[in-house]
Amino acid sequence: MKLSVIIPCCDVSGQLPTLFRSLQGNLRDDFEFVFVEDRSTDDTAAVLDALAADVPGAQIIRHPVNLGLSAARNTGLVHAQGTYLTWLDADDWIGPGYLEHLVRTAERLGCEFVRTDHVRVSGRRRTVVRSPETRRNLVMSPRAAIGPPFRSTSVDYSMAWAGVYHRRLADRGLLGFAENLRTCADRHWNWRLHREAETFATVGLLGVFHRHGVPGSLSELDDPRHLDFLDAMTMILDETAADREADLLLPKAVDATCALINYHVNKRGRLSTGLQRRLIERSVDVLEAMPPAVLEQVLAQGSPRRRTLLTRMRRNPMSLSAVA
Q: How far apart are CA 115 and CA 154, in angstroms?
């Protein structure tokens, strides 16, 4: 089998017809589609059964209970047989011939993983989103794409579905997702991949159409899962601190964490008063656990507005009152 496409499915019955129409333009005898039905509460399972019957290479794996996106991806990884592996979100779709171009690109470059651009779909609006890595079609060390701090880099472009990955990465345990993270698992996964893989490349291939801002999505809800980014970044910080090149990589990890804390604190008005308080308390804990010298360097050299907010929050968390 040349390529396995792993597609977790949960409560996406309305989006599945669009996905399946796009798969019809990407069939090949040596491509397989591994659907993981994560115990949906709507009629996703029935729709999936009906549509998958017309897709050669489709198989459906069913979870007896809902386990979440990371676990569903890991289940698909266990069942996948392809030399190359990729993921899709079930509410997205792909352009005709995209998967074949993806595999040909990976084979031509001969590296362990390839990252691509994608198209963001917001209602009727289409926006091309480019990977921050500007060195295109160049096989390089993933570590070389982690830094520098203070600008967006490849580790900040964390969507697992924007690329393709050689099976040898899975054999080395680098493609599994942390199941304790209900959100932000892609970011932790991407950091580990860039630290531990040997070669990668970024290309300007477009083909994934990703739905953004879907009504009812987590970004629209008052949900404790918003705070899982702090768990993800704590894992990244701890693992990077233990890395052989910690002195080189830690400033980027600290900067990325500060940027996310700044973003979520500024957006805290979407959360309940209790969650806002918990966000601030936990953010302060994460900041205080960082290497002091690295944190001070990042705050001093980063955005003045971010420095002002995070310094104020560290000195007097109660000064950031809940936003209605």
A: 9
CB of 167 closer than 8 Å to CB of 112? no
**pTM summary value:** 0.95
What values do phi and psi take at 166, rounded to 5? -75, 145
CB 42 within 8 A of CB 15: no
- Rounded distance between C-alpha atoms, residue 41 and residue 43, angstroms: 7
Residue 245, burial from CB neighbour count under 10 angstroms (0-12, 13-18, 19+): exposed
Give Cα 179 to chain centroid, integer Å.
13
Contact 312, 286 (CB under 8 A): no
Amino acid identity of residue 69, one-letter, is L
Does the structure show a pLDDT above 60 at 216? no
Query: Which of 172, 169, 186 is closest to 114 using CA atoms?
Result: 169
Does residue 215 register a pLDDT over 80?
Answer: no
**In this structure, are residues 117 and 130 in contact, taking their beta carbons and an 8 Å threshold?**
yes
Q: Could you give the CA distance from residue 267 to residue 218 in angstroms, rounded to a whole number?
A: 14
134 forms beta bridges with none
CA distance 213 to 210: 10
Structure confidence at residue 324 as a pLDDT band (50, 70, 90) = low
Would you say 102 and 73 are in contact if contact means Cβ atoms under 8 Å apart? no
Let me know if 12 is exposed, middle or buried by CB neighbors in 10 A (0-12, 13-18, 19+).
buried
**Rounded Cα gap, residues 251 and 112, in angstroms:** 26
Read off the pLDDT of residues 77-108 as tens digits, 9 standing for 90 and up.
999 999 999 999 999 999 999 999 999 999 99
pLDDT in tens, 32-56: 999 999 999 999 999 999 999 999 9
Half-sphere exposure of 305 (CA within 13 A, CB side): 5
Of the candidates 98, 63, 95, 64, the one whose C-alpha atom is nearest the C-alpha of residue 79 is: 63
